[in-house]
Amino acid sequence: MNKAGKAPTMKDVAREAGVALGTVSKVFNSIPVGESYKIKVEEAAKRLGYRVNSYARGLRADKTYTVALILPSLDNPFFALLADHICVALTKHNYRMVLAITKADPHAEARCIRMIEQNMADGVIGLTYAADLDVNENLPYVSIDRFIGPNIPCISSDNFGGGQMAAEKLVSLGCKKPLFLRIGSDVPGETDKRGAGFVTYCQMNGIEYAAQRFSDWQGIESVYKFLDEHCHRGKLDYDGIFCSTDLFAYHVKKHLESIGVCVPEDVQLIGFDGLKRPETDEFYCSTIVQPIQQIAETAVYILLHGASEQFPGFMSLPVSYAPGGTTRE
Amino acid sequence: MNKAGKAPTMKDVAREAGVALGTVSKVFNSIPVGESYKIKVEEAAKRLGYRVNSYARGLRADKTYTVALILPSLDNPFFALLADHICVALTKHNYRMVLAITKADPHAEARCIRMIEQNMADGVIGLTYAADLDVNENLPYVSIDRFIGPNIPCISSDNFGGGQMAAEKLVSLGCKKPLFLRIGSDVPGETDKRGAGFVTYCQMNGIEYAAQRFSDWQGIESVYKFLDEHCHRGKLDYDGIFCSTDLFAYHVKKHLESIGVCVPEDVQLIGFDGLKRPETDEFYCSTIVQPIQQIAETAVYILLHGASEQFPGFMSLPVSYAPGGTTRE
DNA sequence: CATATTGCGTGAACTGTTTCACGTGAATCT
DNA sequence: AGATTCACGTGAAACAGTTCACGCAATATG
Known about the structure:
2 copies of one chain form a homodimer. Chain A has helices at 10-17, 21-28, 35-48, 54-61, 77-92, 106-117, 159-172, 193-204, 219-229, 246-258, 292-305; strands at 66-71, 96-101, 123-126, 141-144, 154-157, 178-184, 210-215, 231-232, 235-236, 240-243, 268-273, 287-289, 314-317, 320-322. In chain A, helix 1 (10-17) packs across helix 2 (21-28), helix 1 (10-17) crosses helix 3 and helix 9 (219-229) packs across helix 10. In chain A, the strands form 3 sheets. The first copy, chain A, has a 6-stranded parallel β-sheet with strand order 2-1-3-4-5-13, sandwiched between helices. In chain A, strands 7-6-10-11-12-14 form a 6-stranded mixed β-sheet, with helices on both faces. Chain A has a two-stranded antiparallel sheet with strand order 8-9. Chain A starts with 9 loop residues before the first helix and ends in a 7-residue tail after the last strand. In chain A, 40% of the residues lie in helices and 19% in strands. Chain A is built from 11 helices and 14 strands. By secondary structure, chain A is α/β, with parallel strands linked by helices. Chain A has 3 domains: 10-52, 434 Repressor (Amino-terminal Domain), CATH 1.10.260; 63-157 and 293-317, Rossmann fold (3-Layer(aba) Sandwich), CATH 3.40.50; 159-290, Rossmann fold (3-Layer(aba) Sandwich). At the A-B interface, helix 4, helix 5, strand 2, helix 6 and helix 10 of A face helix 4, helix 5, strand 2, helix 6 and helix 10 of B. Chain A binds a DNA duplex through residues 9-11, 19-26, 28-29, 32-34, 37, 52-62, 119.
């Protein structure tokens, strides 16, 4: 280093290169500058080991090349994968990602937003649970899986279409009386449309169906209880079940087997998410696959480039069906 | 907002409160200040909706309250969990976390370090694979699972002890000829000590053992081939296997079963990591459990407070054994 | 040949904090 | 009562960039 071990500044580079401060700035911002000057600056910078100080830059230019991601946690593989893809997509665009984990606590979510408003990021991608998250109007925000407001882009899978697809699949596989089961947060969100899609398909096609919704606070036991009540002499009232998530489907399957109902022989099961077991890369169950990578890339694109005709503020990305052993294909 | 929608600054707060700039600064830095002044400032700040600008602060104070985490990816649940705990620990200390994902590419790792050197963070926690990562001497760095240099703290599980523990467990469960199997990166790391611990225990206790190491590029098939070669008429040459990771153990188990060797009846299996299946919260196999949360918290603590007598620069955190169905308990 | 236009390097001004030397008034000491 | 601390509020300077009005020279235009 040059003097006193302190990191070199643009001023040092300017002196070393024998040019003005503004010229150095231009070089580092890809603003056209005479070729000879450009070379002088670049060589001086390399000689000094100069790196721009992002804080000074952020202060003046109000641009940080940082995006915040707000997530409930990383111990759910869906969230982890989402974070992975978002981080990679941001890196591709030369952005960094600061990650905030909220454990789905609305208080923590609000705290994150406030922290980010301290000029910490150019924008936010959030997967939040607070019912009334107030997002600063001039802080670009893209929400995943939850509609927050008309001016806030919201990206999700085509939950409605996925629900329809699940119903259609069950019916086409021979189910006469399908059931929709969900358990999750009480806060309304896009994922609720999975059930709506299922119900709509059944109604439009005159299928006899049932739908039962549970809240997190009721616990999975209430689902088991429901299943027990609808099981008579080893025979379930339903011959197909669409569960709102893969992991939930897994629990349902385990419970059914424990009370003597075979999957997929007695009842066929379809989940939602498209998660794969880390150990084998197989699906947990037959499932509606969310395009996680596409969700991530779309969220990043819209955050950085804004919504457009091609990328409207409200996008439902196409899902697909994948058999996973819990259906009779 | 006050004027022209621009965010209020300390100057605005000072004017609103009728105090000097420095006083406002002190209030926001918890530097003692007369009670009446403190109240005046706090009320003015609230009225204006003032938030400190972290970039100005970072510029001046050379303190960013940001730590970077460098990880290969998040699709491995071990890494995801580690990131989760590190993020939570940092939040507890009022730090933010910027996450960089490298996909284990040394080139990407170096790029991350360089990016962070642009004053983006006060320190780095890295789980890297580059053999020759050059870390700036005055950028605090804590490495996980890889020894980088004498001046760079390195946190890991007690891999050696865990290896011994696995060997001891297998022996105490009746194994007469245990085998150690590993597959992984060629870059040396702390995790290599798992095998060393295993071997040491066997040698010290006069146990007949074997140890076989594979590299990632050889592929899991080479492990299968090895197992096939050591299996005669449905009987394996070994009655216990210690695998370097849980997921690896899972594959070994599956393959053994596919060639007619029963786990745990014919051969007992112990993995390393302590991962749980996301769907059931059960271990994948009998395993040596890494204290992930403690690793995370220790890494954060050392990064923020520096190494000390209580927290030396090289720490191996105690592991524990947990049965997971692949041993005859 | 004179004037207008263009291109481009220059450096002062500015961004919003923290820090520190300074000054003021109150409290303590002799 | 006068001198000496002490406590603490003050505001200018500094941090390291970006931006922009300016000026100079070279080229284009009439």
